[in-house]
Design brief:
2 domains, globular, about 350 residues, Phosphoribosyl-aminoimidazole Synthetase, Chain A, domain 2, homodimer, 7-stranded mixed beta sheet, 4-stranded mixed beta sheet, 60s Ribosomal Protein L30, Chain: A
């Protein structure tokens, strides 16, 4: 390391490295020293690369928010309480330097970190010849237990929090706005801002996740790869199948305005689009009243969109998709657009 | 994500994601669930970028070892016991794919992980248009307390474990071998292999760190940026100065063979060269017998190289460097060669 790196670390430390619950020693030493107060730990790590996970010209405040949010969403899916995080920034050289950029990044990060009680306790800052790359590790505590993806049971209802497809629609609109070939959706201009806000600043469902776990929900994961792909993770891990009623997938008013009965869009946005950061969870019907109460107290709608089915001895698709009570065959729905 | 990413994660999981002490739920869910058994936690994160922190054509087995080792070294400096880690791989697209590369990487990683009792519990795998970039987060437990960089006291002896400068000399030799302009050291061919082994497979000083902390050492850090820069971190954090006797810096036989009385090399390799991953620690002279006993039982030599001095009211250099009892003025010794 040399001067510039230390200066950036000190800037981050000054803006974000304040104390926090259970922080015995925060940023500035070889490692952080933390006190989980006898609780078990939950930890996850996510990496975002410019040009792949976000536009290189993203507002750094939005990036700061999202880098933390996508990690917190993993803790929400476990029903854990976030406490601490570490941040690695691989920064391409820029003639104008990173100081104002880091200030804005820290502001967006801080807004979410403060409201969710997460302290930055360490990390790294390096130079790269490649795109800006961020890696975040979050650490939380589990008060009682956790929710896991292999715990679905036949007969469970499949629920999702909030609404699906907004971020994927917003991404398409952003591609249209940038004139990318192949993106020719007629953009619903009046709704674009609402969709874009969901893409840029997802809200990790932490309160709901913790309350659902405490109420007895055993199976959840966060919806980041697209609803169908993520549900498939649950089904593979649990060794089960499912039925999903496509028209039940919850849509925001903005998305509903521009999706109508267009099945291509239903497939592209709420069914297989990514970056929702909602929770998918499975629970026996007996838990429905408790779950609706939790949803009400979190001011977060939840929607039952299907049901877990027993494993089939015949090798078939793991999800039967219905549209208004009729089985639906959609072409190519397993292929989610990503680089790897 | 799509197929390739999941396949790589499954491959890593299969090779490295086995259980471990305190692993309640390992790789494969949104997050890992860990039990620190009532102990406090120590955590650190480091990022390595191809072309900056390692040669892009590095043997992946060596890279796997080193990526873990440099992180474990941070825990060693705290006196912590490593338990778990998370690994993020940002991989450039390669026509030949990553499967054999990952196998070799996992082998090198596993060799060190197994001998130090560290379980891989999570991480991420993404594609990048830039260089291969690895980020590792390690988690350990502190049985009693930790060592920190701001805890030096006037009168403390300054000690280092092992030997300094090997990795820096090996890096210069590697540059010479690659014909980089400006690198014209006459390479000590017979010693090159020993030096290179130290550069490629550093040994985190975990046993010594834990024992030193338990014996009452309060101040330590790991020597990764170069001895002088790292000692300066201690002095700044502790608000103190130091005297260092340059000829006391411990050298390996291989390095001693090629350094002789060449002060430029003394300055360049053991004094300011990086990547040593030894521990620098400060302790009152009364601890010397106990420390020598620990060193003996760890089969790791330790060497006193100077002493902590009170803060000076005059603004001077924080370290007075002596060579055979005479003050030494070395040109440009504060500037360590790094990108930032």
């Amino acid at each position: 390391m040399a001067v510039g790196e230390f200066a950036l670390i000190e800037q981050l430390q000054g803006r974000l490295g304040g104390g926090g619950k259970g922080v015995l020693l925060g940023m500035g030493d070889d490692a952080a020293w933390l006190d989980p107060a006898g609780q078990s730990l939950v930890t996850s790590m996510d990496t975002l690369v410019a040009g792949r996970h976000f536009f290189a010209d993203v507002d750094p405040a939005d990036l700061g928010w999202k880098a933390l949010a996508v990690n917190l969403s993993d803790l929400a899916a476990m029903g854990a309480q976030p406490r601490w995080c570490l941040l690695s920034l691989a920064l391409p050289m820029r003639a104008e330097g990173y100081s104002p950029w880091l200030e804005a990044f820290a502001e967006g990060w801080h807004t979410l970190a403060e409201s969710t009680g997460v302290a930055l306790v360490g990390g790294d800052t390096v130079a790269t010849d490649g795109p800006l790359t961020l890696t975040v590790t979050v650490l939380g505590v589990a008060e009682q237990g956790i929710m896991r993806r292999d715990a679905a049971r036949p007969g469970d209802l499949i629920w999702v929090t909030g609404t699906l497809g907004d971020a994927a629609a917003a991404l398409d609109l952003a591609f249209v706005a940038r004139g990318l070939p192949g993106y020719d959706f007629a953009g619903p201009a009046t709704q674009a801002q609402a969709l874009e806000a969901r893409r840029l600043r997802p809200l990790p469902r932490l309160d709901f996740g913790r309350a659902a776990q405490a109420a007895g929900v055993a199976c959840a994961l966060d919806c980041s790869d697209g609803f169908l792909a993520d549900l498939d993770h649950i089904l593979k891990a649990s060794g089960l199948r499912a039925r999903v009623d496509l028209e039940h997938l919850p849509l925001s008013p903005a998305l509903r305005d521009c999706i109508d009965q267009d099945l291509v869009r239903w497939q592209r946005w709420p069914l297989t689009g990514g970056d929702d950061y909602e929770l998918i969870f499975c629970a026996p019907p007996s838990l429905t009243p408790a779950l609706l109460n939790i949803a009400h107290s979190c001011a977060l709608p939840i929607t039952a969109v299907g049901q877990i089915l027993p494993a089939d001895s015949q090798p078939t698709e793991s999800v039967d998709i219905y549209w208004q009570e009729r089985p639906l065959a959609l072409p190519g729905i397993r292929g989610h657009q990503h680089v790897f």
